[in-house]
Amino acid sequence: MLTQLLSPSTLVFIALGAIFAYSFYAVLVAGQLSLAQAGFAALAAFSAVVVAPKPADVGPWVTLAIALVVGMVVGAAAAFVLGLPTMRLRGVFLAIATLAFAEAVRILIINMEWTGGASGMRVPKILTPGVAWFLLALVAYWFWRQGPSRHGRALEAIREDELAARAMGIDVGRHRMLAFVTAGAVAGMYGVLWAYFVRLLAPEDFAFGTAIDGLVTAVAGGSTMFVGPLLGSAFLTLVPELQRSLGIEAGWVRPFLSSLLLLLVILFLPGGLASFIPRRTPKVTPPRDEADGIPARFERRQHPAAGETVIELAGLGKDYGGVHAVRDVTLTARSGEVLGLIGPNGAGKTTLVNIISGLIPSTTGTATVLGVQPGKTPVHKVAAAGVSRTFQHSKLFARLSVLDNVVVGAHLVSKPTLLRRLIWLPSARADERAALEHAMRCLERVGLADKARNQASALSYGDQRRLEIARALASDPSLLILDEPAAGMNHVEADSLSELIGSLAKEGLTILLIEHNVGMVMRTCDRVVVLNFGEVIAQGTPEEVAADPAVVEAYLGSADEEGAA
Amino acid sequence: MQQLLNGIFIGSIYALFAIGFTLVFGILDQLNLAHPAVFAVAAFVGIELVEVAGLSIWVALPIVLLVGALLGVLIEWVAFRPLRGRPDAHFAGLISSIALGGIFIALLQARYGPDTRRFPADSFPDERYTIAGAQVTLLQVAILVISIVLMVVLTLLVRRSRLGRGMRAIAENPTAATVLGINVSRIRTSTFALSSALGAVAGALFAMNVNSAQLGMGSAIELKGLAVIIVGGMGSLSGALVGGLALGLAEVFAVQYVGSSWRDMVAFGLLFLILLVRPQGLFGARRVREV
Amino acid sequence: MRKSLTTLALVSTAALALAACGGGTSEGDATASSSGGASSAAGGGGTGDDCTLSDPVKVGAALSLTGAAGSYGTSQKKGLELAAEDLKAKKGVTYDLKIEDDATDPKQGITVFEGFVDNGTNVIIGPTLSNTAFQAQPIAQEGKTPVLAISNTATGITAQGDYIFRDSLTEAQVIPQTIAKAKEKYSLKKVVVMYSQDDAFTKSGFEVIEGALKKEGVENAKTLSFSKADTDFRALLTEAKGLNPDAIVVSGLIEAAIPLVTQARELGITAPIIGGNGFNNPRLMKDAGAAAEGVVVGAAWNSASSNEENTKFMADFKAKNGAGPDQFAAQAYTGMLLIDHAVRAKCSAERDDIKAGLGAIKDLKTPLGTISINKDRDAEHDAVVQVVKDGAFTVLK
Predict the structure, then answer these.
(1) Most CB atoms closer than 10 Å: which of A95, A156, B213, C186?
(2) Is the pTM of this model over 0.90?
(3) Contacts of B275 in chain A (CB under 8 A)
(4) Is residue A455 assigned to a domain?
(5) Residues C232/B210, Cβ–Cβ less than 8 Å
(6) Which CATH superfamily is C171-299 part of?
(7) CB contacts, 8 Å: B269 with chain A
(8) Nearest beta carbon to residue B260 from set C226, C231, C254
(9) Which parts of C22-105 fold into alpha helices (H)?
């Protein structure tokens, strides 16, 4: 029965289905719900068939090779063209826009003369199961090598939390586009192979249903592990054939069972079919003793000299249509100092810090941080200038391991490894190992080294805060912004955090600390800035600020308002 | 003039269908792809009620509404509730609703066979009117009126009623809503029930409009429904109405001036235009990013 | 996690097991005999009606029972099943008819054909759609298994190879005479043409219509295209009405025909509507009611034909299925008759003998009329131009 089940064409369809699913996987890995792959495949297939020579003239393999090149280029180009205008779209919006694109392509093809319209084009059959599986192996190989590479981790980070990824220096736009283009090329491969197998290339085979099938295959197989698409395709291709061999009556029963099985897989297997395969966590070797944190293999980042101005804000303001979150703030911070930022809730501290780190633009005034203007510079470039931060509400990469979270943090200092991984260059392995060791060192500094393999979302609240700090440290920043890092920490933990901050400052790091734990601020900071209602009401050493009557009033209210004593 | 009316009638059905989508998306942030299947089921059930049970179409419609509501509850319970809290809830919800939709269609085929079904010959009133030179049937007018009434009722429900307030609260912040004692589960179920009820009526009306129900009718309208909610604005009820009418009219005039083979492109052209120029749609609200 | 996996495994197994048990008659098991092309056939004696074969002849049908073409495939299935029953009454040869679903999916169509070729099926029928045919039939050709197409009307089907035959007349064989007759009867000078452009069958029909109109010297005032999933034609019909045509010529499937005709009359269009093979379905009258009156349908099968084979077929079909047959059923039924004739000709179920037998068919009486298979392996018989009168198809005089 097995041989009957795995006839030559079934084998080819499993391979083709898997390749098509990989084109979805390529974007799902980055959390992008793009469904245009059927359109890319259609464009690629028709172009390739028209441009490529006939097998009768040059033989099947030359034809297929040329067709594949043409198809993949067309697919990638189409993806690029679609990727540009849809750059800002996310989630369901992106899904619908890309679906609409795929449908539009289909209608276009039906209306064109050269494609044969609805009747399609006759194409000689030259694809064999061996070639199909060989190409599938190549595609799977690519994604296997991509997973643990710097690029792969960046994509996963984007999927988990796009904003945090940006703050770690990842150019989200570029990575998204790369994922798109990869998807386009793989979809193009699928289109070409399909055309040269089924003998008739018809637009109806690239319709809405096909687009959805590809997505279903990718998700059912599992979009977090590289074997997912293969499993998904095997499952979906074999279910009808299995039903046929079991003698299940031809008719409504089969689609019913197929849909039911799919529903069960989605409901009970959150990671798709790939969750049956245990995920191998990489062995983490204890770090060798390196001088001061950054592995010798990586380039050192330029840090400002001690005392140089790191932050310069002049008349900075931010208002949201009448609500002045930040008002006329002027302050400076010098390299090597620990600057505390305190104030009652709603004072505008986080807004100010968001402006400094480039997340939101200011409405008035100027800001210069480490030589760049954060309001006018993309977030990842601000990070590249040396800014790193934690967030008020933890923005961890939930489904990545603790260690991987920190490795993503090291994005800016580590080297790209994908291309070298493809050809197994030992230098790639060395770079990878160096990145992992560097990350371990950061974890040790915050005391999380023993939890390296845990999933980030499984950590306790306090540990999550520490993980954020480790991640922020990994990029070897010049300016470290900590947004309420001690929230939820007890006395002991807050003290060790204090010590950590102190030791970082001694190493030359500039630290901007927002905190409510006033005792900790007084102990740790060189200078303190107090905000209230978006304005600076006091600046100076901790002692000066503590004694300032305006500050006391802001926190406790003035004596007059307390009513008659 | 005839074309104008054609556009309005088909547009009102697009709008009614799209409202179901946008209701669930706007409030629960989920795209329910079993909605087109509900559309088809309702059409077939409506026909059966008229043909077999001998009811008049006006009596059958409220029953279809209830059937739709029940299907909505089923969809929420089977395809979405088990996924709550999962990190991949969005993708998984898409797929599970697709699968459930497939189950519905397969069951439809089991009961009714693969053929197109129609209302019995004398189900519809025969009156025709002439408005400014254009022919209009009573049925078409009724469809338009019913669509508008349902949409108005829905809007009032969302704005004024307790259920509506709860729905809007959940749309803003589900966690806060729970903390405040709002029964989120019940409201989720009600939202799905409402959405599917409207989709069901849309299906029955559509089948009446063209006097046919096919297994594939849901897929045919699905993509257009999605285009409408993008154009009108995700989560905006008036947007769905305006978007639906706009699409209906645009299609009709495209046929006249551009050529019928490109008619379906109109939906996508509008869609792309809106996405590029005004991504939140005509009436949608821009979601503020949370840091 | 383990609990959900176990649940999943149990539920899936249970579901499959239940379905397999309750799956009803699956027309016999596909016993895997020798792989490759050899088919079983114990020879018997005699030819024609005297032929006897000890082993049943394996006939495999690949039809679209679900999916977009589901209604056509189901119709074909009924035709084949009726034929199989009727052939049982003829002694000597038994048929093992296995009907498979391709779900209107080329992947399944290809796999089903491969399965038939590999498991020793003697002759294959189908698939339902022309596009699937181009994708699947070459497999039978390569496997030297004869295929009888019963609903493919595209150009080039039989040109795929000498093992491929068909009993369905092409549009090119049917439409020109329809246009000629209509022109004569209704004095056509100017028409509007409507067709669904995203279906290969209706598109090729349109191309033939264009050619025929040109040949007859009838002006095509405008071509309006729609999608095969469309059911609201009011915008297009309004456009057509404005052009004041003498007739509206439509290349569409029955799903479109019914609402189109109904809405046309609703909008006050009185010009005759002329349709092709897709309109040749009793549901046209049943569901469009009075609007169907006067619709001209040029088709391969004349349901009003009073020939003996046809009347018996129609009566038997109605008795068995509760409603009259359509063209799909008629062509499917006839297909089995052709196969039976071919088998009995040399009294052999060998694939090459069936191939030879099919090619030699001459003047065989069937519900489609007196049919011959020409040297291009296409069917030849008289087509008909019908008009709907008093709720039934009658020949247009």
Answers:
(1) B213
(2) no
(3) 85-86, 89, 93, 97
(4) yes
(5) yes
(6) Response regulator (3.40.50.2300)
(7) 104
(8) C226
(9) 70-89
For residues A178 and A189, give the distance between their C-alpha atoms in angstroms, rounded to a whole number.
17
Higher per-residue confidence, A292 vs B69: B69
Domains and CATH numbers, chain B: 2-277 (1.10.3470)
Mean pLDDT of A367-383: 89
Domains C39-169+309-380 and C171-299 share a fold: yes
Buried b (16+ CB within 10 A) or exposed e, C310-342: beebbebbeeeeeebbbbbbbbbbbbbbbbbbb
Bridge-based pairing of strands A510-514 and A338-342 is parallel
Q: Which positions 112-141 of A are in contact with C (Cβ < 8 Å)?
A: 117-120, 122, 125
Closest CA to C75 of C366, C252, C271, C301: C301
Structural domain spans, chain C: 39-169+309-380, 171-299
Q: What pLDDT is recorded for position C192?
A: 95
- How high is the mean pLDDT of chain C? 86
Instruction: Please check whether residue C196 is in contact with residue C204, taking contact to mean a CB–CB distance below 8 angstroms.
Output: no
Q: A93 in contact with C at a CB cutoff of 8 Å?
A: no
Position A273 scores a pLDDT of 87
Q: Are A186 and A332 in the same domain?
A: no
Query: Which residues is A513 bridged to in the sheet?
Result: A340, A482
Contact C287 B10 (CB under 8 A): no
Interface predicted TM-score of the whole assembly (ipTM), two decimals: 0.88
Whole-number Å distance between alpha carbons of A202 and C68: 15
Once rounded to an integer, what is the mean pLDDT over residues A52-62?
Answer: 88
C4, C12, C76, C107, best to mutate vs chain A, most A CBs in 10 Å = C107
Mean pLDDT of C375-394: 90
Express each pLDDT in A31-46 by its tens digit: 888 889 999 999 999 9
Per residue in B216-271, pLDDT tens?
888 878 888 888 888 887 777 788 888 888 888 888 888 777 777 777 788 788 88
Cα of B29 to nearest chain C Cα, Å? 26
Q: What is the average pLDDT score of chain B?
A: 84
Closest chain A residue to C11, measured at CA = A264
Listed by number, the residues of chain B in 78-107 with a beta carbon closer than 8 Å to a beta carbon of chain C are: 106
- Do the Cβ atoms of C262 and B211 come within 8 Å? yes
Q: Say whether residue B135 is in contact with chain C using an 8 A CB cutoff.
A: yes
Chains contacting C (3+ CB pairs below 8 angstroms): A, B
Which residue range is the domain that position A514 belongs to?
301-386+477-559
**pLDDT value, residue A128:** 92
